[in-house]
Amino acid sequence: MGKIIFYEDRNFQGRSYECMSDCADMSSYMSRCHSCRVESGCFMVYDQPNYMGNQYFMRRGEYADYMSMFGWNNCIRSSRMIPMYRGSYRMRIYERENFGGHMHECMDDCESFMDRYHMSHCMSCHVMDGHWLMYEHPHYRGRMMYFGPGEYRSFSNMGYGNMRFMSMRRIMDSFY
């Protein structure tokens, strides 16, 4: 079970809201959020309600001024708890939307799709096992997106426009 505490102001000041599950819209609990503390588990936080917009992975720790750290202009507006997973990891990545183009099956982290698979980007994927983070640039840099088990036919239809992913990593139990 995860637990995250959100604070209205930087450095854990102001009103707080404690959360141990998904929260699609924080506006009913607080008008703004400028710092948070993850006491247990892992979470994805989003700068828009309903798990939309920019997202960032948070593991156990203190985030006294996350907006400066992440380069965000907006506050956290929603959050999703990532379930702990200890099994094998398996994902198929595709060069184009709707599972088109070159396909590669992955079972571990990949710093660069180009270096490993000679594939410049990824536009759709099918997560069979585990929980993953994909990044828009090689070496786990740039904007990120969380993927749990399921089919993701079109990243652009998920609100990412023409963003293409170029690296990925597993969310391992060591993050918890």
From TrEMBL:
GO terms for biological process: lens development in camera-type eye; visual perception. One of its GO terms (molecular function) is structural constituent of eye lens. Keywords: Eye lens protein, Repeat. The keyword Repeat applies. Residues 2-40, 41-83, 130-172 form the Beta/gamma crystallin 'Greek key' domain. The keyword Aminoacyl-tRNA synthetase does not apply. Pfam families: Crystall (PF00030). Crystallins are the dominant structural components of the vertebrate eye lens. PANTHER family: BETA/GAMMA CRYSTALLIN, GAMMA-CRYSTALLIN D. Belongs to the beta/gamma-crystallin family. This is Gamma-crystallin M2-like. It comes from Chanos chanos (Milkfish). The lineage of its organism: Eukaryota, Metazoa, Chordata, Craniata, Vertebrata. The gene is LOC115811247.
